[in-house]
Amino acid sequence: MKIIAKTLEGLEQILADEIRDIGGENIEILNRAVAFTGDITTLYKANLLLRTTIKVLVFLKEFQIRNENDLYDEVMKLPWEDYFSLDQTFAIDSVVNSSQFNHANFISLKTKDAIVDRFRQKFGSRPSVDTTDPHLKINVHIRENTVTLSFDSSGTSLHMRGYRRAQVDAPMNEVLAAGLVLISGWKGETPLIDPMCGSGTILCEAVKIAANMPPQSFDRNFAFKKWKTFDQTMWNLVCENAQNQINLTALPKIQGFDILPKAVKASQINVETAGLEKYIEIAEEDFFYQEGTEYATLIFNPPYDERLRENDVTELYRQIGDKLKLCFTNCDVWIISGHLEAMKNVGLRPSVRKKMLNGSIQSLYCKYEMYKGTKKSKWINKYGNAETNN
After folding, report:
1. Would you tell me which of 16, 282, 368, 375 could form a disulfide with 348, CB atoms 3.0–4.6 Å apart?
2. Contact 238/244 with Cβ under 8 angstroms?
3. 202 and 134 within one domain
4. Dihedral angle at the C-alpha atoms of 200, 205, 211, 213, nearest 10 degrees?
């Protein structure tokens, strides 16, 4: 079967690598998505194990249309009775990007009518629509005159892992957080620090990566579990194999800090909800007062939004760069920010510079290699103390 895994902008290559690892074949990178082929086992693995996908779709058919009647005719030809039964429910989700067709609701209605009429013709009765929790969710995507039909095998967006019970302003998407860790290449070889940890999302995703824990819970209510073709035995085998791969015995020190008590509390709640409190240390601490360390990996998302004045943002990022040079030698530091101008004030030359999308904000994700012996720099912190790094 052909499968399409949707993702966030900038994570396509990482997702393609993940798909290869679970046995996907004929991998094709698309815009915010990756297409591949696989069997039902691959589909189950994709939903359970892929960290950087938000939705896994099963391709059904692609065709060209000239008008809405063409859509109706093509949809009605398909053997919908093979995919779900009269006593099951369905829903239509339409996305339209076309100069000719511009009403997604009308497209959904036309598709629904064709499916219902086919059932009526064959059985004299029709299945019901349930937009809240259907047995089968059908995706209709129209780009100009090309229609793509697919089944949603995931249900609720896969970025919703279930552990984020508390949050601070502008929390990071879990899929993005996992992507940041995977792009960094960190797999638990060194200590990991998020010095501005917010709600703890990067930390939770990092532990799951290092321990080879699935990003999703085994009891998650995936949409494919309601399908007529669901194979419980195969699903149990996929879960059993994934469970056997988990290793929490050799994790390095993983720490999160934040200056805001609210953020520290949110991180603690989320880490506990994820069942990871034994493996992650959370503390209230100002980054600029931290002693620092060597031979660690730092991944963080400094504040940059409208809550900070422009001059404050510029100064903050300058101080971040000076603090890194002073206290984090021999560390790999990864910073993501949506304030592209402020990133220039870090004062360090990135060895990796990757464009990302954080929500709707164009962002940069940069790696700084803090080799010992970086040229002398002076850090003047916001409290007026001057220190020198040789």
Report:
1. 368
2. no
3. no
4. 120
Domain shared by 322 and 365, yes or no: yes
Parent domain of 305: 174-212+251-374
Q: Are residues 78 and 187 in the same domain?
A: no
Give the residue from 131, 71, 61 showing the smallest Cα distance to 98. Answer: 71
Are the beta carbons of 278 and 253 closer than 8 angstroms?
A: no
CB atoms within 10 A of CB 7: 28
Distance, in Å, from the CA atom of 158 to the CA atom of 218, rounded to the nearest integer, reads 13
In a domain, 167, yes or no: no
The pTM for the full model equals 0.91
- Evaluate whether residue 231 is within a structural domain: no
**69, 21: one domain:** yes
